Amino acid sequence: MNENGDIGLVGLAVMGANLALNIADHGFTVVVNNRTVGKIDEFLAGPAKGANVLGARSMQEMVSMLSKPRKIILMVKAGKAVDDYIDTLMPLLDKGDCIIDGGNSHFTDTMRRTQRVEAAGMLFVGCGVSGGEEGARRGPSMMPGGSSAAWPLVNPIFQSICAKTPDGNPCCDWVGDNGAGHFVKMTHNGIEYGDLQLIGESYQFLRDGLGLAPLQCSGAFSEWNKGELNSYLIEITADILAFRDADGSFLVDNILDAAGQKGTGKWTGVSSLDLSIPVTLIVEAVFARCLSASRDERTSASKILAGPDRKIAGNQKESIDNLCDALLASKIISYAQGFMLLRNAATEYSWNLDLGNIALMWRAGCIIRSGFLDHIKTACSQNHGLVSLLVDSYFRDVLAKSQNGWRKTVAQAAIAGIPMPAMSAALSFYDGYRCDRLPANLLQAQRDYFGAHTFERVDSPRGTFFHADWTGHGGKTASGSYNA
Asked: How far apart are CA 411 and CA 424, in angstroms?
């Protein structure tokens, strides 16, 4: 074992402990620390016994045990804890040393921290890590950004421990400056929210609309996983639906329908509003979790609010096939919206994001990994100016083939009273995106009528604004034009 550690790791919760073992497996010596010192001893005597792992009881001891330039990764709760550790570490480190935040931090915090640490002559990396417990242990998707000079320092470790695509490419590459890595991870999580909600809506359609038992639902998802919907989330959904509780019943039926969330989906929605990008599906997925959490209200309302009985008549196989098309088409919309957000964030924050490489980073290891991402990688790599995945030839053709089943599914759900907020939002976005004349002309007229907010005309150049005296006594004074 190297007596000088190659990297320090702070935080031995599930993700940190597994990441430390992963790093050690690849020939690097890890120096670990935890706020509760007893956990260090438990880790060294248990999972890390015999591994290239050393324990440090304090930050001072950790710093003294690391080879220069020092690299320390923080696997702690996002927020104040990260800043507290930075406060503790900075006086102990030398110029050129690197602090890495591997938690789910908000990208604006990472921008601030990068500036602060760089001003002291040190380096900072905000690295999104996706894949959960298993990914951290066997190979996560990693999205590092921050001080560009840090990439040569962390590259050998990160690209060794990360997941690999089927053809051997590492699911980790430098994303961009300051908060770029954590922004990409946030967007990944937003798309994950969308994927999970779409799968949930499909499950409810099968369960309530078609009356399928959990094992039959599992069979449908298993079959879909053999085609274009092949993905980690579809695969585990099939497993979950077939899993039995201790008494032999299906465990999924015994789980309370109140979803939790940790905030990254909400952050994606807020960022989309800040950048004026309509990630409608992801936002609906966040709101669907909020609605699920209001379970007591829903239970009471279900006893007094009228509606159909959620049963769908007709050919069951045809309905299942249509649902498969609807899920695939909606999934395309989810990714298209996410990549629109990434493209606009790159412009807003001066990040040189390689969207094809980002798709590659998500190809394995992460929660949204799927064969589907190969097509996104190809689309973005072949056309760097691609404004939307929807106009790429592959995705355009899939949407054309899928939309009949998509429309029938959404219509059947609406008639039967089955909520499909994300799938319906996806279809509305698609129809809005392909519409050459939306009703915003009337909206602008209304705004000008009551607030003199002005409007543009179809027979004048863009950027030329007009105001009409709608009532005959409103005058010619107009409000200044601006976008919030």
From this structure: 9
pLDDT the model gives residue 465: 95
pLDDT, tens digit, 9 for 90 and up, residues 471-480 = 887 666 666 6
pLDDT of residue 481: 53
Residue 259: predicted pLDDT: 87
Gap between the Cα atoms of 143 and 152, Å rounded: 15
Which candidate, 132, 133, 114, 139, places its Cα nearest to that of 124?
114
186, 143 Cβ separation under 8 angstroms: no
CB 91 within 8 A of CB 85: no
Low-confidence residues of the chain: pLDDT under 70: 1-3, 474-484
Q: What is the pLDDT of residue 472?
A: 83
End-to-end CA distance of the chain: 57
pLDDT (0 to 100) of residue 260: 83
CA torsion through residues 12, 16, 17, 21, sign:
negative
Residue 139, pLDDT score: 96
The catalytic residue positions are 185, 192
Q: What's the whole-model pTM score?
A: 0.93
The predicted structure's pLDDT at residue 4: 87
